[in-house]
Amino acid sequence: MHNITRVALVGGTHGNELSGIYLLKKWEKTSQFTRWPQLELTQTIANPRACEHSVRYMETDLNREFALEDLQNDRLVGYEQLLAKKLNQQFGPRGRSPVELMIDLHNTTSNMGACLMLLRKDAFNIGMAAYVKDRMPEAVIYFQDNLPEERNRFLISVAQQGVTVEVGPQPNSVLQQETLELMETMTGHILDYVVLYNRGELASLPGEFEAFQYTEDLVLPTDEQGQRLAMVSKRLERRDFHPVEPGEVIMETFDGVPICWEGDYTAYPLFINEAAYHRSHSAMSMSQRIVLRCADYF
Amino acid sequence: MHNITRVALVGGTHGNELSGIYLLKKWEKTSQFTRWPQLELTQTIANPRACEHSVRYMETDLNREFALEDLQNDRLVGYEQLLAKKLNQQFGPRGRSPVELMIDLHNTTSNMGACLMLLRKDAFNIGMAAYVKDRMPEAVIYFQDNLPEERNRFLISVAQQGVTVEVGPQPNSVLQQETLELMETMTGHILDYVVLYNRGELASLPGEFEAFQYTEDLVLPTDEQGQRLAMVSKRLERRDFHPVEPGEVIMETFDGVPICWEGDYTAYPLFINEAAYHRSHSAMSMSQRIVLRCADYF
């Protein structure tokens, strides 16, 4: 277990998610970056051109461009593909990065509250989740450490450790004060935790905490022309991380036929009706509720 | 007072406002267009290319391209400028249109509920407002008949009469069942009213009703580089059409300084934090509450 000193704080990976962009501006203006003198904290806007146009991306989703083979593929010269290579040079290279932690700041149009998204269940991540959940009980802890490696093409994969702060609901290209404050609070707790972690002061963590574990993605049915045949049921509206039992209605066709949850487990949906997944007709992701004991990881 | 027979129902004027686009699809699929056999009802997607890309517009806002002098200016050949000329040919020409009523279906990211936006206070519009408000008490009636003529560059200005159905809150590129149902209900009432109006059966309307009248627009303060210095206060979040008294906090700078409402009247804000007005740093529009008596207009 080595110290986490170099921490990169990133906003604007998606240019229409304004909380991260404005949190960095706000912390710059109010000198908040000096609150953690023990850390080498840097701040970066990942996709300034997408921010300028207030769009998610110019050509392709930057946050899907960090697969190792893509970073090494010289024929990939799209705008975000080039930007990924530049960011990999700046923060990486992936696999040998000097940056010990990257915190990537995102918004969602779904009602996910303040969600801490984690890619690993190791002592550092488990401790962070326990600490954040303890200081901020309304936070949602979400593990996607079971994603297949080929789907981990996220910007944070460049650094040694990476976490995503995902706050919503907030429409794209909108800045809401409450959502900004949720992000600010969560990010502050993460940085406080890193200082505690470096000091080895993990005894103060709670014994166990609630979290959610990714299981699968659900898409809306489409016809042969790729046109949607159904929409997410209003029963699920704004109910991210609320339980859905097998057999419950989750979608409805435009002519009024209900579509039920066919899984054999109590699911906790998230990214319900997320705008960015409009093209792929994604309806929601599913997760299961889990309880994690810190003692199992230290 | 002549009959309103030719009615054009338009969705997709903004390509990322999904309720109108999907309402037309739904009505097509469920043969709802035949519910009003007395009317010659047509349906159109105004900006199919913007819909395909799920963006508000390709180059410029189509719903600001219908000024008479712009429609007649052959040098304006941007994508939406050309599209406006084609729509003016299809539905107009503006000033001599055979289309007696155009209903334009929009979404807003603001919490405006189901809002009927009207450009005139004549018997036809007053009657429509009274009828809709009576059948759908949660509807908000909003008059912007005091907009200067040069700002009426809307698509609906092409037809003899035009109304906008503006439903929210819904993020761009998202389809929510509840929002779609609000739009469906309001549009149905409008068409029912047109049939009633043609029959001269206006005696059944309520004597008076509440509405809101546009007064002015408020923008966020910016620095010399055009960067925002403040955000809308969270006190106003989701509180479209709730009263704001003179002196109340309506914005806050990023370093925590409150900015108060400086008007000398009780204002009812709308389009609070609307995503589409991000570039112009619009914070909200202001309106005043009014009560209208039908008898004054018939």
From TrEMBL, chains A, B:
<feature type="active site" description="Proton donor/acceptor">
    <location>
        <position position="166"/>
    </location>
</feature>
<feature type="domain" description="Succinylglutamate desuccinylase/Aspartoacylase catalytic">
    <location>
        <begin position="4"/>
        <end position="193"/>
    </location>
</feature>
<dbReference type="GO" id="GO:0016788">
    <property type="term" value="F:hydrolase activity, acting on ester bonds"/>
</dbReference>
<feature type="binding site">
    <location>
        <position position="106"/>
    </location>
    <ligand>
        <name>Zn(2+)</name>
    </ligand>
</feature>
<dbReference type="GO" id="GO:0016811">
    <property type="term" value="F:hydrolase activity, acting on carbon-nitrogen (but not peptide) bonds, in linear amides"/>
</dbReference>
<protein>
    <submittedName>
        <fullName>Aspartoacylase</fullName>
    </submittedName>
</protein>
<dbReference type="InterPro" id="IPR016708">
    <property type="entry name" value="Aspartoacylase"/>
</dbReference>
<dbReference type="GO" id="GO:0046872">
    <property type="term" value="F:metal ion binding"/>
</dbReference>
<dbReference type="Pfam" id="PF24827">
    <property type="entry name" value="AstE_AspA_cat"/>
</dbReference>
<dbReference type="Pfam" id="PF04952">
    <property type="entry name" value="AstE_AspA_hybrid"/>
</dbReference>
<comment type="similarity">
    <text>Belongs to the AspA/AstE family. Aspartoacylase subfamily.</text>
</comment>
<dbReference type="InterPro" id="IPR007036">
    <property type="entry name" value="Aste_AspA_hybrid_dom"/>
</dbReference>
<keyword id="KW-0479">Metal-binding</keyword>
<dbReference type="InterPro" id="IPR050178">
    <property type="entry name" value="AspA/AstE_fam"/>
</dbReference>
<keyword id="KW-0378">Hydrolase</keyword>
<keyword id="KW-0862">Zinc</keyword>
<feature type="domain" description="AstE/AspA barrel-sandwich hybrid">
    <location>
        <begin position="208"/>
        <end position="288"/>
    </location>
</feature>
<feature type="binding site">
    <location>
        <position position="14"/>
    </location>
    <ligand>
        <name>Zn(2+)</name>
    </ligand>
</feature>
<dbReference type="InterPro" id="IPR055438">
    <property type="entry name" value="AstE_AspA_cat"/>
</dbReference>
<feature type="binding site">
    <location>
        <position position="17"/>
    </location>
    <ligand>
        <name>Zn(2+)</name>
    </ligand>
</feature>
<dbReference type="GO" id="GO:0005829">
    <property type="term" value="C:cytosol"/>
</dbReference>
